[in-house]
Amino acid sequence: WDAAYERELQTFQDIGEAGEIWFGEESMVRIIRWLEKQKVPHDSSVLDIGTGNGVLLIELAKSGYTNLTGIDYSPSAIQLSEKVSEKEGVSNIKLKVEDFLAPSAELSGFEICIDKGTFDAISLNPDNAVGKRKQYVRSLCSVLKPEGFFLITSCNWTKEELLNEFREGFEILEELPTPKFCFGGRIGNSVTALVFQRKK
User: What region holds the Methyltransferase domain (predicted)?
Assistant: First the structure.
């Protein structure tokens, strides 16, 4: 990931291109629309897990959200997101180099946690993926307030699989609509987007 973000950082410095938006623009619109529909207060504390280039946080800031934090374990990603938010004139985003599987003590008390692809990336780790997924859920429980919301977008997991992964401590609130495709007479989704609530 460091190498990938170093390339994106170089590209941004060369031509001002922020890089990949995971799952496309509509994935960000979907998240923001849900927050607005739920009338989530603009000063709610939001954590973007694996923020990458920080574009989701910038869109949230432009939509009026003011208490935004992005973490990534890649220092190059955090550097890139700092530069992108500076270019976009957004200054109220906190960005930190953090390993979500071993979060620091000050990473706690968030009302909303958002994940677009980070759980997927952790799940693909060839070194003890099952243990890392369990640790992810423990970390999520430690940073998200009871009754807080967790919005996850995944291209690796079905709704049923995610319900199983997050059954300890979380309940499903809603499945967000994602683009459908038809193949061999069956209809499916290339992406799953779910909203969980942390149990009391």
Answer: 44-174
